[in-house]
Amino acid sequence: xxxxxxxxxxxxxxxxxxxxxxxxxxxxxxxxxxxxxxxxxxxxxxxxxxxxxxxxxxxxxxxxxxx
Length: 67
Hints:
By secondary structure, the chain is mainly α.
């Protein structure tokens, strides 16, 4: 079950959801990325590309699909 960030929530709250920056700064995540030949920068670049692709698809007439 995914938690939702609430205004004023902190890490001890069950509603806390870390930001992408926090996730990518985690040492364990860094080890996994390095093992897989990735960097935080490559992950960010891929997410940005996908975000733009999804936004373009949603705004293109006749190309948007129902979820």
